[in-house]
Amino acid sequence: MTCPVCGGAAEAGVRCPQCGAPDVPEDAARALAEARVLAASGDLDRSIRVIHAAVKAAPGAALPHLRLAEAYERKMRGGETALTSLADREFREALRLAPADRDVHISRLGFWTRAGRLNALRLEYTRRREELPFADECLRILDTLERSGAVAGALDAASGATALRARYLFISAAGLGVIGLVEVSVVVYSAMRDDEYVMMSDMNFFVAVAGLTTAAILVLEGLRALKHGKGA
Question: Are 68 and 90 in contact (CB under 8 A)?
Answer without folding.
Answer: yes
